[in-house]
Design goal:
Largest sheet: 5 strands, antiparallel
Radius of gyration: 30 Å
Order of helices and strands: HEEEEHEHEEEEEHHHHHHHHH
Number of strands: 10
Helix content: 40-55%
Number of helices: 12
């Protein structure tokens, strides 16, 4: 691939890498630690949760110890206030609320709406679903007299239709402003507590663990077989393979534990996220070093070593913070501004690394063309072509992801949402396999190393001279090549 085309491709990728999105991460046990209600339209509202649930006799949403508390000022007034919980499927969202004469939509019944729709003033407007007239489900809790608290009756709602279910706690009494709620709701699918959109990922991580194990077996067989000829680059590849295997195994263990207990231990999830962030960091640094020709065109990175390490550490911190925010705890607790604050550094660093990788790769190709090292040039051409194909595939997937999110604001396509996350794990594995194939340990590994460059040129000379070569000339040639390579490395470091 022409170096100019590589740079153009990297520039095309730069703006698209900024279009990153958040993975949805939710807990099956939604806990409400004294959460306040908020003003929404003509109602007081508290968001209770949202999960995809498959229909089954084993699927349910359970209410446990839901307790509402009001302030002392409201208690002294001795007002009977009503709070309702409403459960509805995403496709039935229009069955909650209404509008009078085509005006603004209201959740609570107003005097005008009570005349038009026959709803009860001071309560939620509920229209029976066309799928089941008993849905949406309404539960009630009422403050009585001067009671400071009101308890909602524990209930277990069976799910008979597959869908994305939403839970809202609503009060239509504006004089109850300031109330808070404690308790929890438990959401369960047929096979366990994993939310519906996360359940397929547990099986996916089983398959990914298997393919990583297979790759590890093949790689370590060659690694041990030719351990005397191993390059520094191949040591780095080994580290990435091990980290990838550990990440997939621990993701499965995290999901399996979540599915069986309904809880995600903070330590386990944080450990998995840390391994993943470290694997992504090492993978990107590995690709960058390969693109710079480390161990093949140059023996060291020279003055660029500190810059590469600095970028690596910064990327690890940014990736770790973002992944923790997305996977540890309940994602809804992170505000929109906080999400933007966490995702922007990760996006910019990814874009910067891509630009650096393609720029370095184009320079390495130019050096190999000038030196006419055909074996190394062939490997780097294959690597650049494969990398370009995967970049194009990534760009296409980003466009699809943007379209997917933009056209599904209510998460009605939750059953296929897992593919958004899975794609990036697959693309990382494919790229790792390509690198393993191109730089697999063999008896000829040293031919690709920086120290073996002179031998490769000597072989070409021997083929032209019939195997006769003056030893003194060979020594002079070695010194000349060493000096010229050192000068080229210094010049390249200055350009970087």
């Amino acid at each position: 691939m022409d170096s100019r085309n590589l740079i153009h491709l990297s520039l095309l990728l730069f703006p698209l890498l900024l279009s990153l999105h958040f993975k949805t991460s939710q807990s099956s046990a939604h806990i409400y630690p004294s959460q306040p209600f908020h003003d929404v339209g003509n109602s007081l509202l508290l968001y209770g949760g949202s999960e995809g649930i498959f229909a089954s006799s084993k699927s349910f949403i359970k209410f446990e110890n839901i307790t509402l508390r009001r302030t002392n000022d409201l208690q002294r007034k001795g007002r009977n206030g009503l709070v309702q919980a409403v459960i509805f499927e995403a496709s039935d969202r229009n069955t909650i609320g209404g509008s009078a004469y085509g005006g603004q939509r209201s959740i609570c019944c107003t005097p005008d709406l009570s005349k038009i729709q026959g709803c009860k003033q001071g309560e939620i407007i509920r229209i029976p679903s066309r799928h089941d007239p008993n849905w949406p489900i309404l539960l009630r809790a009422r403050f009585k007299g001067k009671a400071l608290s009101a308890k909602m009756e524990d209930a277990e709602i069976r799910i008979k239709r597959t869908g994305m279910y939403n839970l809202l706690f609503i009060s239509c009494d504006s004089k109850l402003k300031g109330i808070t709620m404690t308790g929890k709701t438990v959401w369960k699918n047929p096979d366990g507590y994993l939310p519906g959109r996360m359940a397929p990922l547990m099986k996916f991580y089983v398959y990914m663990s298997f393919v990583y194990l297979l790759l590890s077996a093949v790689w370590f067989f060659q690694y041990i077989r030719f351990r005397k000829d191993i390059l520094q680059l191949q040591h780095c590849i080994t580290v990435v393979i091990v980290l990838g295997l550990l990440e997939m195994v621990f993701w499965y263990l995290d999901y399996a534990n979540f599915n069986s207990t309904g809880k995600r231990p903070l330590a386990l999830t944080t450990w998995v996220v840390t391994i993943g962030a470290f694997r992504k960091t090492v993978s990107r640094i590995l690709i960058l070093c390969v693109s710079m020709g480390f161990g093949v065109v140059k023996s060291t990175l020279g003055g660029l070593t500190s810059k590469v390490l600095l970028v690596g550490v910064t990327y690890f911190v940014a990736s770790e913070m973002l992944d923790i925010a997305e996977n540890v705890g309940i994602i809804d607790d992170v505000s929109g501004r906080a999400k933007l604050f966490l995702v922007l550094p990760d996006a910019f660093l990814d874009a910067f690394l891509i630009l650096w990788i393609f720029t370095s790769l184009s320079r390495t190709l130019e050096q190999l063309q000038m030196k006419r090292t055909s074996v190394k040039l062939d490997i780097y051409r294959k690597f650049s072509n494969a990398l370009a194909v995967l970049v194009v595939a990534s760009v296409a997937w980003i466009v699809y992801e943007v379209h997917f999110k933009a056209t599904d604001p209510f998460n009605e396509r939750w059953q296929t949402a897992w593919t958004i996350t899975a794609f990036w794990d697959v693309i990382a594995f494919v790229l790792l396999c390509i690198i393993c194939y191109l730089w697999t340990p063999s008896q000829n590994s040293q031919r690709y190393a920086y120290s073996g460059e002179v031998d490769e040129e000597n072989e070409e000379v021997q083929s032209l001279t019939g195997g006769k070569q003056d030893g003194d000339i060979s020594l002079v040639k070695l010194d000349k090549n060493t000096d010229s390579d050192t000068e080229e490395d210094i010049e390249e470091d200055k350009r970087e």
